[in-house]
Amino acid sequence: MDDEAATHALLVFALSLFVGPAIGALVGWRKNLFWGVGIGALLIGCAGLYGAATVGWQRYQSIAGTVLVEGHLVEFVEERSKDSKGRTTTTRAPVVEYTASDGQARSVKGLGGGLSGKEPGDPVEVRYKPADPSQALVADFQNMWGIVWGLGLFGGFPAMFGLFFTGMAIKEGRPRPAFAVKVREATPAQKRWRTRGTVLANLVFLAGFAVCFLYPDESFGKGLGAGFMTIGAGALLHFVVQSFPPAMEFEFRSILGIVGLGFIAFGYGAWMMM
To answer: What parts of the sequence cross the membrane (predicted)?
Structure first.
């Protein structure tokens, strides 16, 4: 389903990986480094977010008219592919059998990540189109939303960094004040709250590393996802603490926000795909 939309989105994103740095280098040469990095990263980010939005909308529309049925895993088949350097990569693709409303048994091939822990005969949900039951999709996160999440992640990160460097470029271009702005000192109460918040954020941040290895689940991906989301929560808590008045300058705080959101997004995807 939606193969054409996914192919189009991937082509646009792949093109942005060449166009973005090229235009960024030109802008950086004409203006300054911050503008160049910002514009280049924004072009890549917007291409990724465009792909995530278009594929997500197409997927939502196609899934809205489907029927959910329980099938079962038949087997895993090996698929080999070669990259541009001639290296061979082998993946295991699950084959799932399902029975549509017409009583005919059919099979669909999916992506293996989300079903890697299953055995032949285990139940697997499938969505198919009533008008054409042969058009089906394994109904797990990876097969339905994996490409949307991937494009959103690879688009969101460059977009956030692009906004950061563009903001730095705008700030650098502003005229500097003739006199130094006096920085307000934190009160003793504000210092205590910031210290307590920093300690709590550090504990959450460090707990994320422990969760990666101590999470009570056989799936390493589940533990990795839970750990990364915990680390992201710690980084976002640092962002909140550093926003207490008198706040740290926004460009420095925003790095904590970007890191936190990135870890949470990556961790959520790892959790859902395992």
So the answer is: 6-26, 33-53, 147-170, 199-216, 222-240, 252-271
